[in-house]
Amino acid sequence: MTISFTQFIGMCEVYDPDVQGRSQITKQGEGGRVGRDRRKSEPERRRVKATGGGKSEPVSYKDRKDIGSQKQRSTKEQQPQSERGSAALSSREAQRKAYKERKARESKGSSPSSSKDKEKAASKLLTKKAPEKKVDPKYKQQKSSGLSRKERLKLVSAGERELKGIMKNQETDKYKKETGQNPDKKGRSTIVNRVQKRMNN
Hints:
By secondary structure, this protein is mainly α. It contains 7 helices and 2 strands, in the order ααββααααα.
């Protein structure tokens, strides 16, 4: 006796409930579903809601809006980004192909090929040219001192030290005039702060 594959599957579904549950052959479910209804039955549901009067009942499931429609493969899987057959290219062939494409773009002319180049060209056209600065006819170029950078810095430091000393003497005399005594530790700190403030200005 010979039986068809469909008859064999039908027999498995009848006699073997485990195989029936794992079977890959799906039937049209209730309510227009693509597969069978896998939701728990009312006695199996643990989640309940209060209905009033100290009573509660199991929460009912809401039907999905997309019942009966098959999901597109493109919505579930990452689609290929490169051209068909490009994965088969070796690294050397891929380099050669990229080189040829680049040369072909360059040979088209000076017109911008990529969106980035177009954006740069557009921004260059839109930018306003700054007016040329007029040089004052009375301007005279500063004469070179003939000193190196190290020597110039040394000279500036020496000048600042001398200026700081003069200011310190001035502030000390001012403090003595105000208080009528020589500055103590607190007075010296006040003098230093005043000198520092004057130097910063």
